[in-house]
């Protein structure tokens, strides 16, 4: 699996290659004032909330 930042604000944000079979955990910061979105294969978009 490859994790690619969309519209990164720095050239240092590079894609990350993750081995097969690895479970990923995504957390929304408690201090976040904005909505977080997860896009899978550029098609499915899911809004993320704290404690999802």
TrEMBL record:
GO molecular function: NAD+ kinase activity
Gene Ontology BP terms: NAD+ metabolic process; NADP+ biosynthetic process
Signal peptide stretch: none
SUPFAM superfamilies, alphabetized: NAD kinase/diacylglycerol kinase-like
Record InterPro entries: ATP-NAD_kinase_PpnK-typ_C, NAD/diacylglycerol_kinase_sf
Superkingdom: Eukaryota
PANTHER family, A to Z: NAD KINASE (PTHR20275:SF0)
Name listed for the protein in its UniProt record: NAD(+) kinase
Organism: Rotaria magnacalcarata
């Amino acid at each position: 699996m490859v994790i690619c930042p969309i519209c990164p604000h720095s050239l240092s944000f590079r894609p990350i290659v993750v081995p097969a079979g690895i479970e990923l955990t995504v957390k929304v910061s408690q201090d976040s004032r904005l909505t977080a979105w997860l896009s899978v294969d550029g098609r499915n978009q899911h809004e993320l909330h704290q404690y999802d």
